[in-house]
User: Fold DUF7591 domain-containing protein from Caenorhabditis briggsae.
Amino acid sequence: MTVLILDNPTDGFAWLLFQDYEITKNIKSFQGEHCNNRNLCGSITSDATNGPAALQIYNKDGVDVISDLSGSGQLEVYIGAVSQNKTNLVATYHAGETSSSLPQKVFGYFKTLLLTDGNATITFDDTYTREEMYGSVGSTGFISSDNYGTYTLQNCYATLLSSPYKSTVKFRWSVSYIDLVGDSWLQVYGDQIINNERSTYVKDYNASNPPQLNSYDEFIGTSMTANFGDRGLRSKGMLIRYEVEKSSNCIFMFLSFVLVLIVNFDC
Assistant:
C-alpha cells in the first residue's frame, strides 16, 4: 500500500490517497495536489529522468484543464489512478507536440498524470467554466464521463463550442468506448447548419441502440454537446473522441455568390 498526501489544503484537513502497491511499484516518484477554484494548480514540473513520475490531483470542482505541456517526455492522463490494463487512460501527449490537442478539459474529481520519461512542465488553466470547452479548426480532443474506466456511477454533460465563438466548423466525432447498462443513455446533439439554415443535430443511444465504436459521424455547425445519463446504475462510462475541421459551408457560400453574379450579369 502506498500513501500520498495531496498538497497542503487551505481548509486545514489533510487529503490522503491510498493505492495498491502492485499498481504503483514501478512509479519512481509521486506528487500530490489538491486543486480547486481557491487553490489553483498553476504550473507543475514533473521529473521522470530516473523513471516514471506521477502527478495526482484531487479537485472537488470535478474538472481540470491542461493547457500546455513543455519540456520533454510522454504524458499519460488517467481518470482515477494508474491502471495496469489502461482502461481509464483518456489521452497520451508528447511534450512540445500538443498544438492541436491542448487545451483539454479532463473531467473527474481525481486524476493521475503519469510522465513516463523526460522532464516536463504541465500548465493548467483554471478560468474555464465547468461544462464548456472550445475547439478551433485543427484541434482534437476527447469528452468522457467523470469516472471513465471505473465501475461506478458516471456523469457527463459537456459542450464543445467553435472558436472563434459562433464560427462555423465541421465536428467529427466517434465513441471509443461506452458501457450502456440497463436504461442508461447517451445523447450527442448540436447547433447544425445546412445550406445556411439552422437546425438541431441529434444522435440518441441506449442499450438496445448502441453506437458503432470508432465509427466517425460529422456535422457542420457551431456547437456539440455530449450528455450521458447513468439512471443511477453503475457502469464504466463512456469516451468520445472529436476533431474540429474547416467547414465546407464557406465554399458553398462562395459558389452561391459567384452563381448570383453570373445570373445577374446574364440578365
